[in-house]
Amino acid sequence: MTIKLETEIAIIGSGMGGGMISRALAEKGHKVLILERGSRLPREDRNWDPSYVFIKGAYKNASTWLDENGKEFAPGVHYYVGGNTKVYGASLFRFREKDFEEYQAAEGVSPAWPFKYADLEPYYSKAEKWLKVHGNVGEDPTEPWRSEPYPFPAVPHEAYLKKIAEQMERLGLKPLHMAMGVDRQTNGLCIQCKTCDGFPCKLGAKSDAETCGVDPAIATGNATLIEGIEIYKLEHDETGKTITSAKARKNGEEYEIHAKTFILSGGAANSAALLLKSKSSKYPHGLANSSGLVGKNWMVHNATFMVGFDPRRGNDTNFQKTLSVNDWYWESPQGYPLGNIQMLGKLQAAMFKASRPWAPTWALKYLANHSIDLYIESEDLPSMENHISVDADGRIRITWKPNNMKAHKGLVKQATRMLRKLGFPVVLTEQMGIETNSHMCGTVVAGNDPKTSVLNQFCRTHDLSNLYVVDSSFFPSSAAGNPALTIAAQALRVADLGGISS
């Protein structure tokens, strides 16, 4: 027996895209059904146990994916209400004005978006309010113009990082306070602990899609959440122009969801995979895929973890993720854009142990207590060769060869020099591989021409009138900054201007 449900708007996925658009639509009075394959991530003491989180990988609940050679890997994907934002670092960075325009990168062209920064700017401001973003205007040499200040002042540097920032300034750099989504307002919940970046927050103090999107949506009385339900196919009418239903399974039972509008927000891999699996006689190569671009141009930032080690000085910082450097985001000695440098959440011994199990724990503790920890990210350019596909058994396969590495190697070089000048005699690096894909994007690209894009500028598919894809899938380029705020802002823009109506 199939259980049939009806709603006005069905939203598949509750990450940053799905969570924020569900709130926006519910607050407008629309009846919304949020369909999430995961459950609520429990708030418990183990949320902050680095061994439980990183060595056991207790909250990583996605099935394995395959690389192009058929080798299995565990993706950095979390299926919970709130999606990957439950464990993200809450860095809420606006893309620069130029990021929305075509420009020459080190090893190719970064394409233009179908809209400009100015079109998204008011929604950046609204998203920052909903996500309680803390930051300072005027510090970032590359920051775009703003119509409103940050909702809250920046989270201040702790003593150790304050000294580092002062040293950076003496080197001629322009360090800035990171734009962070944490509840540090008066009487806020955040206690600035070590367990933000990569951990769930047992206090609910992180500005994630559950606490800032899904829960406020439900509170309106216009949104309902179903947990543990996996959508496996979308079906259309005989014209191929309208989605009529979504097929789903929950606890072994079959479901059929009918809605006037369907919004797909499963993330860049899963959204594309669902479209590819929803084949029909009208769409033999996948739903909404008349362009042949569904799943193509998979991007994920070129990223390196960098550790500066100085045995002479301890680092007693708890909340390390407050400092960033954008001096080489556009301009560099190499003559081309390099990217962004930001602090990681403070690394702990168990976090090192997860990737270096052979190392003695005492040594890793000493390293963690005397290190500064950086995340180096550069732009990955769209390429048809980089794509996701779905095997016959439904498993996701990623074909990916990093590109624009000339820029990334240049940024790693600049960051290494910077740390040495700051007095760190030992600099360790580890480039992230295919399994670290928290910034993936670009697989259902937006554009003005149906022949060269899957979605229009408001994330509606060119092929079907009532199907939207609202997550990082729509990105035409990856820029060189954290994508979460741009996903949220576009979700609010789509809710406002995308033509979703009863």
Question: Can you offer a commentary on this structure?
Answer:
This protein has helices spanning 16-27, 50-55, 117-130, 159-170, 209-219, 268-277, 349-355, 361-369, 405-421, 484-497; strands at residues 2-12, 32-35, 65-67, 72-73, 103-105, 108-110, 133-134, 176-177, 180-181, 223-226, 230-236, 243-250, 253-264, 302-309, 323-325, 340-343, 371-378, 387-390, 396-399, 426-431, 467-469. The mean pLDDT is 96. It contains ten helices and 21 strands. The strands form five sheets. Strands 1, 2, 10, 11, 12, 13 and 21 form a seven-stranded mixed beta sheet that branches. The protein has a six-stranded antiparallel beta sheet with strand order 8-15-16-17-14-20. A four-stranded mixed beta sheet has the order 4-3-19-18, with helices on one face. The protein has 502 residues and is of the alpha+beta class. Helix 1 (16-27) runs parallel beside helix 5.
Topology:
Layout: E1 2-12, H1 16-27, E2 32-35, H2 50-55, E3 65-67, E4 72-73, E5 103-105, E6 108-110, H3 117-130, E7 133-134, H4 159-170, E8 176-177, E9 180-181, H5 209-219, E10 223-226, E11 230-236, E12 243-250, E13 253-264, H6 268-277, E14 302-309, E15 323-325, E16 340-343, H7 349-355, H8 361-369, E17 371-378, E18 387-390, E19 396-399, H9 405-421, E20 426-431, E21 467-469, H10 484-497
Parallel strand pairs: 1-2, 1-13, 2-10, 3-19, 13-21
Antiparallel strand pairs: 3-4, 5-6, 7-9, 8-15, 11-12, 12-13, 14-17, 14-20, 15-16, 16-17, 18-19
Helix pairs in contact: 1-5, 1-10, 3-10, 7-8
